[in-house]
Amino acid sequence: MFLLDTNVLSETLRPQPDRGVMLGLERHRHELSTAAPVIHEMLFGALGLPPGAKRTAVLHEIEHVFLTTLEVLPYDRRAAEWHARQRARLVNEGRTPAYIDGQTAAIAAVNGLTLVTRHVTDFAAFEGLAVEDWSTA
Question: What is the pTM of this model?
């Protein structure tokens, strides 16, 4: 099972999406989920676009494709506890990963999922997290 990061979902909206990402999505289509913070990022980005055809298309994709085909996992108590432990450790080491990356990593870790992202280095410092990059670039 896999949890898709924002940059993997947004890849599907590109005019020419990465072939490796699209093949991975097709190959694992019955094993995919995402996280509530990822949906937040997607909606926030879409709602920040000026009104028009692009905004409408992106919102349609989020609402009628992502939210209907993917299980959206919550940032719950287990995830919050995992995230707090990892964040404290990393801050004590002088590293400060993005808060939303920590939330997404926590949701993947506590649910035993592999996080699929195009930015593996953003998640490399988290312990006990399986991460994959399906892109060909």
Answer: 0.94
| pLDDT over threshold 90, residue 136 | no
Q: Beta 114-116 vs 131-132: how paired, if at all?
A: parallel
The tally of CA atoms less than 13 A away on the side-chain side of residue 78 is: 8
| Residue 16 confidence class, pLDDT cut points 50, 70, 90 | very high
Say how many C-beta atoms besides its own lie within 10 A of residue 9's C-beta: 23
Residue 137 lies in a domain: no
User: For the chain, how long is the longest CA-to-CA vector?
Assistant: 46
In the chain, % helix, strand, coil (3-state, to 5) comes to 55, 10, 35
Residues 12, 99: Cα–Cα separation, whole Å: 24
